[in-house]
Recover the amino acids of this structure.
């Protein structure tokens, strides 16, 4: 028996509006402006010049597309079965599903990221949003954040669902 919990990403509307404009500008540069600028009398040098000049623009296009796609359409899907928890991030480029065995998990809890302290800085996340909680898995000394940037109500609801599903016993036939 596998239960599925889907958590929709909370989009930042400024990014959702500005990134498509940047993507369209980069498409214009890559497919219209750069071919016109790189045209020369010899086709081999024109092609090499075009390829060399398109690489940085293509890198920015992939970066903006990655950010926009996850911000606008991203979601986390938790598949909880009696043996494992599978975490899949939909609409996020270059990411594969992660699986965690239930037997290895010591604890599932909520982490408050309102104030993040590291060796080099202190970041106050609570100043701009109240969505600064994460669902974490504790495996030995390792802490793994599986769902980030939730408000406390959603974090408690999701944690309650996970604990309810994990504590259910499978019926014996």
């Amino acid at each position: 028996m596998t239960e599925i919990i889907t958590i929709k990403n909370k989009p930042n509307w400024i990014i959702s509006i500005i990134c498509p404009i940047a993507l369209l500008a980069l498409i214009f540069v890559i497919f219209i402006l750069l071919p016109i600028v790189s045209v020369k009398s010899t086709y081999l040098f024109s092609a090499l010049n075009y390829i060399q000049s398109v690489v940085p623009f293509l890198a920015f296009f992939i970066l903006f597309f990655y950010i926009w796609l996850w911000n606008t359409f991203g979601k986390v899907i938790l598949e909880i079965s009696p043996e494992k928890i599978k975490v899949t991030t939909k609409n996020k480029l270059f990411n594969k599903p992660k699986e965690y065995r239930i037997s290895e998990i010591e604890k599932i809890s909520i982490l408050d990221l309102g104030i993040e302290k590291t060796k080099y800085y202190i970041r106050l996340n609570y100043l701009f949003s109240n969505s600064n909680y994460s669902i974490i898995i504790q495996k030995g000394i390792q802490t793994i954040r599986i769902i980030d940037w939730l408000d406390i109500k959603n974090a408690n609801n999701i944690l309650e669902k996970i604990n309810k599903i994990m504590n259910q016993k499978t019926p014996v036939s």
